[in-house]
Amino acid sequence: MNSIPEGVKKSWNKKEDLLNQSDEMALKADLLAFESRYEEADQYYEKALQLNPSNANLWAFKGINLSGGLNRDEDARKAWENAKRLDPVLADALDVQKIEKDEGEEFSSPVLCGMPDNIRDKIKQLMKKQKEQLDSCK
Questions:
Q1: Which positions ≥6 away from 129 have C-beta within 8 Å?
Q2: How many CB atoms sit inside 10 A of residue 92's CB?
């Protein structure tokens, strides 16, 4: 049986450690954004992205924080462009300009509680678009 070389194992462990650190930073950012501490959340999103710049979801949520929390729409657009470039499926979900509000359909999630309306609306729009895509695949 072939064993995995020690150097490869160390490399994998290092990558796993970096991903875990990135996830930890992302969780802190999400919690800070939930508490309306948007500047601090942005700092943690930046730290997470330094560790894992190819995570499209991190870029997307950074964009939501920038736009909905900090009113930095141009920076948010850049973050969403990075997310779109990294994940074509997410690109459709992030195409918020094409989403029309459907007043009759509501999405509920504990994450939405206590968030400012503009962030809640953006997340609802993303969820709606993703649901439509999933439904169309059935």
A1: 92, 93, 95, 99
A2: 15
Query: Which of 64, 73, 36 shows the shortest CA–CA distance to 121?
Result: 64
What pLDDT, in 10s, does the model give residues 9-60? 566 677 788 788 998 999 999 999 989 999 999 999 999 999 999 999 899 9
Q: How far apart (Å, rounded) are the C-alpha atoms in residues 61 and 22?
A: 14
Among residues 97, 25, 39, 112, the alpha carbon closest in space to that of 69 is found at: 39
Q: Answer for the pair 65, 45: CB distance below 8 angstroms, yes or no.
A: yes
The dihedral region occupied by 3, where left means phi > 0, alpha psi between -120 and 50, and beta the remainder, is beta
Domains of the chain with CATH codes: 6-137 (1.25.40.10)
